[in-house]
């Protein structure tokens, strides 16, 4: 009897995986990704939440054996991170992750509040495709502002004593990309240009979608008002996707990287 149940569960899992893969037929679904996380207003609370979100995704990447690299990181003053950008490689990653873009809300008793009061924190997640080198995206040098600065993330004393980090602003679109993970300013600049190319590609895709299909554009809007998922740790425990109403009553499990339920629902119910 137990063997039969195990076989049924395995078959159901295979069927679900096959069903999910059938939905990954979008134009860029097979691309690798850049993942950006930004803390919202609220200082340490939101910065700690941004780091918790990054940890959640890193654990999920590890479970799936996806390769990742931290491109940039800006640490919070007391805890957490203000922002971070990762490059992630894996099969159909953009198709799997694109519905994670949006604002994620955390409700908990704050570990930073001596009065043990409940706090609400926000962080935004942005997923965009890492475009291939053979895709032609025109970038005019006169449209760029390139700044160099000292790295504030990991890398040791050598990184922090040289202006090796690079920030590029695309003036017409106000898109900003930055990289600080290499000791070489030249290599960081090269990575920035790849990220900018990806962002401009995504910008054009979104502009086209907006013109052709307003409904699709509303789903990909990642403004601060577009809250997609709520994680409540106190007074009750619940993770709820506000788009498809998928719920999990074990937030610890979700924050430990077990997010397949939400990833699959995002694909199937898009």
Structure description:
With 270 residues, this protein is an alpha+beta fold. It has one domain: 2-Layer Sandwich (Alpha-Beta Plaits), CATH 3.30.70. The protein is built from 8 helices and 11 strands. The strands form 2 sheets. It has an 8-stranded mixed β-sheet with strand order 2-3-1-5-4-9-10-11, with helices on both faces. It has a 3-stranded antiparallel β-sheet with strand order 6-7-8, covered by helices on one side.
CATH hierarchy, class: Alpha Beta
Number of helices: 8
Order of helices and strands: HEHEEHEEEHEEHHEEEHH
Q: Shape, please? A: globular
Major sheet: arrangement of strands: 2-3-1-5-4-9-10-11
Q: Based on helices, strands and strand pairing, what is the structural class?
A: alpha+beta
Strand content: 25-35%
Tally of domains: 1
């Amino acid at each position: 009897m137990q063997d039969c149940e195990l076989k049924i569960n395995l078959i159901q899992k295979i069927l679900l995986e096959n069903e999910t893969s059938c939905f990954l037929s979008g134009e860029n679904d097979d691309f690798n990704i850049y993942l950006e996380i930004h803390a919202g207003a609220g200082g340490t609370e939101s910065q700690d939440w941004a780091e918790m979100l990054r940890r959640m995704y890193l654990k999920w990447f590890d479970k799936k054996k996806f390769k990742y690299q931290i491109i940039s990181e800006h640490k919070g003053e007391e805890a957490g991170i203000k922002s971070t950008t990762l490059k992630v490689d894996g099969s159909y990653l953009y198709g799997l992750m694109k519905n994670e873009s949006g604002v994620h809300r955390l409700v908990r008793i704050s570990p930073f509040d001596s009065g043990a009061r409940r706090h609400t924190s926000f962080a935004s997640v942005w997923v965009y495709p890492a475009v291939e080198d053979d895709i032609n995206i025109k970038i005019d040098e006169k449209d760029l502002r390139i700044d160099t600065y000292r790295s504030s993330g990991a890398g040791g004393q050598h990184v922090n004593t040289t202006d090796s980090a690079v920030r590029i602003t695309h003036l017409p679109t106000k898109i900003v990309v930055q990289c600080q993970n290499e000791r070489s300013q030249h290599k960081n600049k090269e990575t920035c240009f790849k990220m900018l190319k990806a962002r401009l590609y995504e910008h054009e895709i979104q502009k086209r979608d907006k013109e052709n299909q307003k409904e699709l554009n509303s789903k990909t809007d990642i403004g601060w008002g577009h809250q997609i998922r709520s994680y409540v740790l106190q007074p009750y425990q619940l993770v709820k996707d506000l788009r498809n109403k998928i719920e999990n009553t074990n937030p610890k499990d979700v924050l430990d990287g077990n997010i397949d339920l939400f990833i699959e629902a995002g694909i199937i119910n898009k």
